[in-house]
Amino acid sequence: MSLALHLPRLQRLGFLCETVRPEALSRPELPVFSSELAAELGIPDSVFVQADTVAQLSGSAARYDPAPIATVYSGHQFGVYVPQLGDGRAMLLGDLAAPDGSRWEIQLKGSGKTPFSRFADGRAVLRSTIREYLASEAMHALGIPTTRALAITVSPDPVYREQPETAAVLTRAAPSFLRFGHFEYFYHRRQHQHLAPLADYLIAEHYPECRTAENPHLALFETVTRRTAALIAQWQAVGFCHGVMNTDNMSLLGLTIDYGPYGFLDGFNRHHVCNHSDAGGRYAYKEQPYVAQWNLLKLGSAFLPLAAEAELIAVIESFVGHYQTGYLNAMRQKLGLSHSQPDDAELVHDLLDVLQQAEADYTLFFRRLAEMPAEHQAPLPDSLLRLFPHAERLIHWSGRYKRRLRQENLPPAERKRQMDAVNPLYVPRNYLLEQAIAQARDHGDFDGVRRLKACWQDPFTERTEYADLADTPPDWAADICISCSS
């Protein structure tokens, strides 16, 4: 028994994809899967121990029906247009109908070469596969829109990067994996006849509310812009750095997609660059909102045959307001503030200055902030002060914050409950990922991966058995280098 899949809806377009054949791995195994996602998709856990499923999800099945496909796209990578990209190591197996009526695309990542692999081998390594598996499900648990990860299959076959590594295949799921780069490809190749059908497909399958607009294609671009702004606001609020915000890594559904050298902020640093390959800091934490708008500008160019230039520019300019509103609302929630005040943005900005100077742990600061009393003379909690080598600026800022809390007039216990519900205690820190990866890679032991998955499935509830996963990082964590190589 294996996953029952339907013909991919994308094939209706006729111009976007090519049929592909996965390349088998020797002696594949399926050590981990997401039972939470499986339940959403209506897949019993027992399916994942079946030999047919292991073969199907490792790219090793004797027959695939329907035939897998790979799509073509282009994109701006680190600001430079690359005319030919595409699913170089991803294959869409088919669509799956979930019990709630939703339809999901099921995709293998690392299952071999496609017509769009260029000079690459189409494979993925265990290291990057574990990182994406854990991050996808953790981001979902944090309430941030994301593609999902269903399972990992592994093989003793070597994959050659800087050194030989273990081969792995990730089974991903999403309502759609369509990207900004799909529109860019047909626009820059002057195949403009494909742009309207692609936009119409998106509207029919994912944005039906745009159908009745005066210009449905402009309404589609507006909706993608709003979703992108909302997504980036959530990234910034939780301290997530994507690392490779190329236009081909931007989802048309406003999902976090393609987890490579990502990272969550440890000590707060606006200039943090999580990708060792990003020498110029193009995708630094503080740059992410600006890059997102720049990427929308490139997508807007591809919409020029579908809408008036002035209207598209107005939509792109509206990104700033959408983002700022979403970000400030998210930060108010993190601060336990229910009502809007004119100086809230200044309060947030000044707090980040305090965190920046002290390089205080971003996640733990907001979690422990819920313990701060609102009374003017009350001392700051020791748990909070321990994050600061020198607390003078924090104490000064806290006076303003306490006044703001008193305006809210919320009982301390209720404020703490509300703040704990939006400020995670557990996030995917790179040093924890590295430990779990080493355990799996060097010893074939996936217990560390399973433990992190179980913890990050509920990032807001404190549990004593995961106390070690809520610590500040050890000193050696600062030396971890994550790059685009995977």
UniProtKB/TrEMBL annotation:
Cofactor(s) listed in the protein's UniProt record: Mg(2+); Mn(2+)
Top-level taxon of origin: Bacteria
Signal peptide: none
Reaction catalyzed: L-histidyl-[protein] + UTP = N(tele)-(5'-uridylyl)-L-histidyl-[protein] + diphosphate; L-seryl-[protein] + ATP = 3-O-(5'-adenylyl)-L-seryl-[protein] + diphosphate; L-tyrosyl-[protein] + UTP = O-(5'-uridylyl)-L-tyrosyl-[protein] + diphosphate; L-threonyl-[protein] + ATP = 3-O-(5'-adenylyl)-L-threonyl-[protein] + diphosphate
Residues annotated as binding ATP: G86, G88, R89, K109, D121, G122, R172, R179, D258
Entry EC no(s): 2.7.7.-, 2.7.7.108
Binding site for Mg(2+): N249, D258
Keywords, ordered alphabetically: ATP-binding, Magnesium, Manganese, Metal-binding, Nucleotide-binding, Nucleotidyltransferase, Transferase
Catalytic residues as annotated in Swiss-Prot or TrEMBL: D248 (proton acceptor)
Alphabetized Pfam families for the sequence: SelO (PF02696)
Ranges annotated as spanning the membrane: none
MF terms in GO: AMPylase activity; ATP binding; magnesium ion binding; manganese ion binding
InterPro entries: SelO
Primary enzyme class: transferase
Family membership noted in the UniProt record: Belongs to the SELO family.
Protein task: Nucleotidyltransferase involved in the post-translational modification of proteins. It can catalyze the addition of adenosine monophosphate (AMP) or uridine monophosphate (UMP) to a protein, resulting in modifications known as AMPylation and UMPylation.
NCBIfam families with a match to the protein in the record: PRK00029.1
Designated name of the protein: Protein nucleotidyltransferase YdiU
Organism: Neisseria shayeganii
UniProt lineage: Bacteria, Pseudomonadati, Pseudomonadota, Betaproteobacteria, Neisseriales
GN (gene name): ydiU
